[in-house]
Amino acid sequence: MKTEKEITIYDIASKIGIAPSTVSRALNNNPTISAATRKKITELAEKLGYQHNPFARNLRMQKTHTIGVILHELNSQFITSVLAGIEKVATESKYNLIIGHSGENAKIEVVNANNFFHKRVDGIIASLSFDTDDLNHFKQFQNKNIPVVFFDRVFEKSDAAKVIINNYQAGYDATAHLIAQGCKRIAHITSSLKRNVYSERKNGYKKALEDHKIKYDEKLVIIDGFKEEDAIRSAKRILAMKHLPDGIFITNDFCAAVVIQNLKDAGIRVPQDIAVVGFNNDSIGKVISPKLTTINYPGFEMGQVVARTLVNHLKGIWDMNLTNTVIIKSELIVRESSLKKGKD
């Protein structure tokens, strides 16, 4: 594939009809250049895909051996384990990492992408925020043949390279397990359905109900965040239901742990009254009582696969565009929180 010509300050200067030195000062926010001129220059620079160059001119065509990683959160055992996997492969391959944290905010995600673009990273690894609506901010990398690999939260219908699990099957397996334990009124606590991970898990939940002749009830689906205050709110919504569910499939282990504690505080027995299945296989599930049944989401392995996919592409070992979707295996781990059968 032919790479686009590198845009320079001379190209910008020529199009506007001013001196290159003026362009340089404007792009560096020099106050000697009027605000109107700075605006005109920066807008044209963005339109043309100009990259600020922090390196010497004789390094212009060399690689930076740097990978940008855009994460939707940092306070997550799953994300931490993914990052550990990425770091292991990157270190072994002599690549440095720059981490950008969107904090579940699409606008910050765009800022991170633009920042990495101007830092001239060799490639991007990204997991999308809750409210990201499109991939337009990643097109600048595509235009420069800078590879981008998405993981976990992706746009499944896009042609971009991605590493995911089968969220639909995981949602199905979690729900089918609760049904096998005798549950017939199963609630589902999840988050933004804009994201593939939650929409697909919900679809799996619905299909499992359908296959077992259990009517889907939208009132049993709670969509909220996964922070402690969100989980408490979700638990209160469960407890306020006229007819309590006898099972809950929750798409986050920390949220599940908080919900279980709130149910127990209200006198509800888990799993005898309400069986619970979580998601991610975070360490919290092994220390709460009862121990949490969950879906194992192998973050470290996912991080390694994501990084190796990108690094091998950068080294010319493999063209990641030939297989643009890699699916990592996940599995149900059964513990006490869902085992209703045999309980008093």
UniProtKB/TrEMBL annotation:
The keyword Repeat does not apply. InterPro entries: HTH_LacI, LacI/GalR-like_sensor, Lambda_DNA-bd_dom_sf, Peripla_BP_I. PROSITE patterns: HTH_LACI_2. It holds the Pfam family LacI. The keyword Transport does not apply. Residues 7-61 form the HTH lacI-type domain. Keywords: DNA-binding, Transcription, Transcription regulation. GO terms for molecular function: DNA-binding transcription factor activity; transcription cis-regulatory region binding. This is LacI family DNA-binding transcriptional regulator. It comes from Panacibacter microcysteis. The lineage of its organism: Bacteria, Pseudomonadati, Bacteroidota, Chitinophagia, Chitinophagales.
